[in-house]
Amino acid sequence: MDYTVSSKQPAQLKVDCLVVTLNKGAETLPAALPEETRALISDCVKDGDFKGSKHQTLLLQRPAGLAARRLLLVGTGSDAPLNVVAFLQLAASVAKGVASTGAKSAAWWLGNIEVKEQDGAGVLREAARAVADAGYRYDIYRGDAAPAPALKRFTFLSELPAAQAKKAVAAGTAIAAGMALAKDLGNCPPNVCHPDYLVEQAKALAAAYPALKLKTLSEKQAEKLGMGAFCSVARGSERDGQIMIFEYQGGKGDPVALVGKGITFDTGGISLKPGASMDEMKYDMCGAASVFGTVKAVCELGLPINLVAVVVAAENMPDGRASRPGDIVRTLSGQTVEILNTDAEGRLVLCDALTYVQQKYEPSAVVDIATLTGACVIALGAHAQAVYANDAELAQALLVAGDECGDRGWPMPLWDDYQEQLDSPFADMANIGGPKAGSITAACFLSRFTKEVSWAHLDIAGTAWVSGGKQKGATGRPVPMLTRYLMNLAGQ
Ligand code: BES
Ligand code: MN
Ligand code: ZN
To answer: What is the value of pTM for the model shown?
Structure first.
């Protein structure tokens, strides 16, 4: 798909489909539309065909006063400016509405749109991201895959200066491309998407961008380095664990580090999970997938920053060499861990990766991203990722970034009071903290490996995929939040 911008008046653009969104009631019609077009819309409203209700669509052929062949009206369902989350949903409806027509070219006039706490460039960027993201499909294994939509060109009509508008649309589509990569990896079945597959994907990504370098550590190399916690998880599977390290050089100074949990399937190990919905544990590598997606977006944008991005991949399986409850392992940091539950494996693979990235790169900040706990889903549901940090400024930067792009986080406590839940009689700590505050004690565990650095942890267990029936699928979150955070650091 080709995404372009234009500053033409809505009536002048010769496209197959022009989209105009209208507020609830559709009473005041935009003066930028010709008299005849407004009269046509008024008739539709008077006759009760269009009410401007939320995501209502009405398609009009050969609309009076317009060069466009069709006019698609879409209701916002509100008479006040939308917040960014509601705007993203509106943009997805616009994209779906257009895709359901036979139009080969479409344009969305943004001149009458106001979004809370967004300037014109932000509106355009998020519109482009949502429209591009709405076209995402994962149907490579389906015999009945829907044919590709007719649409080839989508134009955003904006009054911004052309260069600024182009940049905003490019940013939006770059972020959508990163989300699509994260979704593809997340949705990929776990018999295909295993640690070696992620290495192949990492090689392909690194080959696509000259600014990107890739290093990998095999399970054997990790063992030699002393990553006893990571290896204790990886050992339980026939498939070897793998660690991937992307180095992106776009600027000066210490890099920001991202670390993604990449459990390509989480059976729970010997502490086996119950069967219901276990298939969804293929999504236990969505932290890793979001690292891939963010790296891709950063490369597409060519951000002037330095970034090191680590993917720590293993399959949590109950093989003959799998960890038992009661096993004690030595982490790369030297601290020992008593494994009381082999299903709390995410923190075990992450802790060694967190130590590694600090030892090797002296990053200015470290952010890990993980589908870490079911407790996080209970606490925050599907709307916000949990944000933990040992640095209030870093937490704030991530929360603000999330708010700006509708990929929201919510701050959670990391108080010392919770730490004692991790006490073990036999090792420096246990890998679980009991039934209370499970997302917090998981974060407390990680905090013991990040004492010397500005660090944040995103628990994305509730946001990384949509559960259940037909709409099951990866969301591509938190690629928008992370990319926005890095764009803000780069002053973009
Ligand atoms: N990958 C899971 C967390 C998870 C579960 C995410 C369900 C989304 C939905 C993680 O490895 C895990 O199993 N965590 C345990 C920790 C417990 C044993 C302390 C959990 O949340 O049950
Ligand atoms: Mn688990
Ligand atoms: Zn897991």
So the answer is: 0.98
